[in-house]
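Structure ticket #2291
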Amino acid sequence: MGNRPGNGCRIAVQRHNPDFAALVPVRDTACRKLPPSVKIYCVGGAIRDCLLKEPSGDRDFVVVGARIEDMVGAGFTPVGKDFPVFLHPGTHEEYALARTERKSSKGYKGFTFNVDPSVTLEDDLSRRDLTMNAIALDESGQLIDPFHGIDDLHAKTFRHVSPAFQEDPVRLLRLARFAARWPDFVIADQTQMLCQSMVASGEADALVAERIWQEIGKGLEAKTPSRMMRVLEDTGVWAAITKGAGRVQKKALEHLDRAAEENLPAEGRYALLIHNAGDDCFEPALFKAPKSHQALASLLTQSFLTRDSLIDALDHITAASPELIFNWITATDILRKPERFELLLGCLRVANYLSQDHANTLQGLAQWVVGEAAGNAVAAAAAAWQAREAKGPIGDGPDHAGGIAEVVRLARIEHLRQSPLFS
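Resolution: structure written out below.
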């Protein structure tokens, strides 16, 4: 059926193993309303993570031997758009009917599904991507591992379950994301070749921007983002999804991993990737990253272009122009989004564009721009301007043409000038 034939392998009962106790399917009130012949299994990532001694995420269940009307009659709510998935009436966890798939067209949506009650657990597991994700836990607490996923977990190997892997191009991205999460795992040779053949056949061309970002965004948040990038490159996926971009520069990969070590949020890691991707640039719009991510990437590039003048000003602060530093700080929209300013400093520091001392100085100066005392100075200046304005035209002073907005800006700059760093 796949690289290694399934054999219905059942592992020792795990019901009393505290690691698995919370994953064993329970015949609660709703599940008892299903026909007695129906079998329920916990499957997928939760089982994998438990075997790896990692925190388990949401539980997913497969129901074998049931019909759609059985699930609805037991109180489950249908939610699946492409195939029957139901929400438990009490826990709201997902229960999917066991299914098989048949490729009907290119892309990750090009499938027709069979959810007949005759579909077996092994049939369902055989359509999954990797052997480590094709392990089930039954109601008695037994692990069912027909494709030797536990062996592959012990060997730290990513291996596809069957040739059906090549029918879904999203699996190319998922494999790379998993490699970022478990960087010490290796990709089986047959799986690597299958990925490359998928790209060569044009299957990766069917990936859409939203789905690309969904997987790459998760990979950027993983332990070693650089591993995801190298897998994408080595399989040819990176060139396919970026319309021919070259390999990502080594320094960009180093910055990504350093950002991960320092727990920089996803926005920062995305900005570092876009900024340092390589000489063969690609259009960031190919990834439908959130606007906040794109805005930070743009700020990082702008800050890179002006870093020399900024660093010179910080190194000679007593002779520096408060307006130059003010303009740099407020370009991040710090008044409305102070977290973006902090994140930009983190990116600049990770990329070695700013030293920690420079970053600390900027943080201190920023408080003179946005702190409570700055707010009081702005309020006083605005009140004075309004009082003068009420008496008639103010004239041609520096705050006249810009109105109240310019008054506020000049007041913040003047308050910044009072910082001890400038004296």
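Closing remark: Residues 372-390 form the longest helix (19 residues).
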